[in-house]
Design brief:
The chain is α/β, with parallel strands linked by helices and 411 residues long. It is built from twelve helices and 27 strands. A hairpin with a 2-residue loop joins strand 19 and strand 20. Helix 1 packs parallel to helix 9. It is globular and about 60 Å long.
């Protein structure tokens, strides 16, 4: 058990995105006066990622709008930023972090908030016109490619998860001809279940986007100077000509720098219920895999709200010490804007949960669906029904039965 950190202790935050920034803000909010150093491998000041696949990609927002704070607001927090510097190693026993430029930094308390990086398709590195979308630079590169091609650009999106779906919807709105390729028989089926995954697929097809399912990508080829910049070769023998290819096949936690560090790694940084990964080390955001107090299951949640709430919770617990820490027990929430539909979910669904639509319908494009596991309500999904969705939040917080959720739906 660790004691509380002294108010003059040095806190180092590795990761300058949402979870890291929220952790640093909370440390100051709690009255900590010692040095707070935020290290990020990007050269940009902390910015919001959700607009990258929507407003910023569409060009309706400028870059300044996605930054979390104006520079003068960050200055008032008294934070030390080291941007464009990549963590290379951690020695949790010695409480030091090593960096790719050879520098070593000592900490009294450490927040690991390195997030996740986009998975790449092998053999696609260096092919012009092929992008993944994870960073601001990725977004600006995709936007520039679209602009140079003009309206009617042929866009192939590989992967029909939420990022791929948002990119497809945004590109369609810009006048592109979009094809989505998904290896699974049902896009998002592992997340939302088959029925709701098919509902999301229908949304794209209803807007004129081609969705190819149950087929993987064999390879990509590029012929500089040719009329078709990129060709996507599918495993069924189909070839798709594209001006732009966006790969959205998921992310993986950024933990390579933590090998042999003393923390446990398994699909992220393994933490206890209070987000402690080691003595004086907490983790937050996409990289943290913690034991969820309500379910007892290890969970890693790639949602904006989890990064914001988890960053603040990890900071409070780091300052309090493990002996005085509080379990981190959020109700996960995420949203996705596609076309004119807002898809929202609260809770932690599983692919084998029973799904019951209790309001609206797939045909209407407006619905509320409840997820049942055993006799409990596990999650609620809504299409363009935000108020109805949030009425179930108290039930999820209370661990309500599924019958109680059905009763609310009927009221």
């Amino acid at each position: 058990m660790s004691d509380p950190l002294g108010t003059d202790a040095t806190v180092v935050v590795i990761g300058a995105s949402l979870a890291g920034l929220r952790a640093a803000e909370e440390i100051r909010h709690e009255g900590h006066t010692g040095p707070v150093i935020i290290v990020g491998d990007e050269r940009h000041a902390p910015y919001d990622r959700p607009p990258l696949s929507k407003q910023l990609l569409a060009g309706t927002w400028d870059v300044e709008r996605i930054h979390h704070h104006a520079p003068d607001r960050l200055d008032t927090l008294g934070l030390q930023f080291r941007l464009g510097q990549r963590a290379a190693s951690l020695d949790a026993a010695a409480r030091t972090v090593g960096f790719d430029d050879g520098q070593v930094l000592h900490y009294d308390g450490l927040v690991v908030a390195t997030g996740a990086r986009a998975r790449r398709l092998p053999g696609t590195e260096g092919i012009p016109g092929v992008w993944a979308l994870r960073t601001l630079d990725d977004c600006l590169g995709i936007r520039a490619t679209l602009a140079s091609t003009g309206e009617g650009a042929r866009v192939v999106v590989i992967g029909a998860g939420f990022i791929g779906s948002e990119v497809a919807a945004t590109c369609h709105g810009l006048g592109a001809r979009v094809t989505m390729v998904e290896a699974l028989a049902t896009p998002l089926g592992r997340v939302l279940g088959v029925a709701m995954g098919e509902a999301c697929t229908r949304l794209h097809r209803d807007h004129g986007v081609t969705v190819l399912t149950g087929v993987g990508v064999e390879r990509l080829s590029s012929y500089p100077g040719a009329a078709d910049p990129v060709v996507v070769h599918l495993l069924d023998g189909t070839s798709l000509d594209a001006d732009l290819v966006v790969v959205g096949v998921g992310v993986e936690p950024s933990v390579d720098w933590l090998e042999d560090s003393g923390v446990t790694l398994e699909d992220g940084v393994v933490c206890d219920e209070s987000l402690f990964a080691h003595d004086r080390v907490v983790a937050a955001g996409d990289v943290a895999r913690w034991r969820h107090p309500s379910t007892g299951e290890l969970a890693r949640v790639e949602h904006w709200t989890n990064a914001a709430e988890g960053g603040a919770a990890a900071a409070r617990n780091l300052l309090a010490g493990s002996a005085g820490s509080q379990p981190y027990d959020p109700i996960p929430f995420f949203w996705s804007d596609q076309y004119k539909t807002k898809i929202q979910m609260i809770g932690l669904p599983g692919p084998d949960d029973e799904v019951v639509v209790v309001g609206g319908s797939v045909e209407e494009g407006r619905l509320v669906a409840l997820y049942r596991r055993a006799d409990r309500l596990r999650a609620v999904l809504a299409f363009s029904q935000p108020r109805q969705l949030m009425s179930y939040r108290p039930l999820l917080a209370a661990g309500a039965s599924f019958d109680e959720a059905l009763e609310l739906a009927r009221s």
